[in-house]
Amino acid sequence: MSVVKVGSVEVGAGPLTLIGGPCLAESQTLCEEVAGKVQELCRELGLNYIFKASFDKANRTSAASTRGAGMDAGLEILSKIAKQFSVPTTTDIHLPDQAAVVARSADLLQIPAFLSRQSDLLEAAAKTGKPVNVKKGQFMAPHDAKNIVDKMKLFGANGLILTERGVMFGYNALIVDMPGLEVMRSYGAPVCFDATHSAQRPGGAGTASGGVRESIPAMVRAACAVGIDALFLEIHPDPANAASDKETQWPLSKARELLEQAVAFHRVSAR
């Protein structure tokens, strides 16, 4: 298993890494609240921490959905979070032209699941020299992740993380192939489990994605017991009033309870 260096954090070496933060970088105040609290919890529980927030949510169900603050404002928020809390940061990119710009602010570039086969985007991300987290598409089998690994090796990526975020199961539903996590890890890249997006019901709310937040703890326990290197959680102090993913962001007030379960089950898998 290769170890991926993300700022000061080593993903795939020892402790479980949490990639967490609000879905959107809605404001500096919101991001500071989440980053501060989650970082404190990670220190107490022995987790590595990478802060995540998106400057743009381009993969929206409806054209009327909130997109975000935009690249300039979003990256400024990320930069301030990194400086204030001395924590590595990550955000998604959607276009090849964004890669080099975002890499100047973020420590880890994230490729959205819908774009995981976009070779030009993957190559642009790899060429920045920053490590890349590719979310496996909802339309891909676990063994298809080897093609992602092979592509990123060809493009000379300086570290790759593979993220599982559920597979389409009929209409407006996702399931998670837990044994598939082991298949993905067999290709030599650290594997992350995105629990909050795996709880989505894509397009299930008509003009937005719905979700089943209550399913998140069970999936976290299962994934950590199987064996993962990182856990991805979107966390918000008031999910009901969040600008996006209202149904699946995890409440900040319940973060300790969920992370304690993650740590306990991860220890089981490490024996």
What is the secondary structure topology, with strand pairs?
Blueprint (H helix, E strand, L loop, with lengths): L3 E3 L2 E3 L5 E5 L6 H18 L2 E5 L18 H15 L3 E4 L3 H8 L4 E4 L7 H9 L4 E4 L9 H10 L5 E5 L2 E2 L5 E2 L2 H8 L5 E4 H4 L1 E2 L8 E2 L4 H11 L3 E7 L13 E2 L3 H15 L2
Helix pairs in contact: 1-2, 1-9, 3-4, 8-9
How is this structure best described in words?
This protein is of the alpha/beta class and 271 residues long. The chain has one domain (4-269): Aldolase class I (TIM Barrel). It has 9 helices and 15 strands. Strand 9 and strand 10 (174-175) form a beta hairpin. The two termini are 16 Å apart.
Summarize the structure.
With 271 residues, the protein is an alpha/beta fold. It has 9 helices and 15 strands. The radius of gyration is 17 Å and the shape is globular.
CATH superfamily: Aldolase class I
Low-confidence stretches: none
Number of helices: 9
Strand-residue fraction? 15-25%
**What is the structural class?**
alpha/beta
CATH T-level fold name: TIM Barrel
Work out the count of structural domains. 1
Globally, the shape reads globular
| Separation, N- and C-terminal Cα atoms | 16 Å
In spatial order, strands of the major sheet run: 3-4-5-6-7-8-11-14
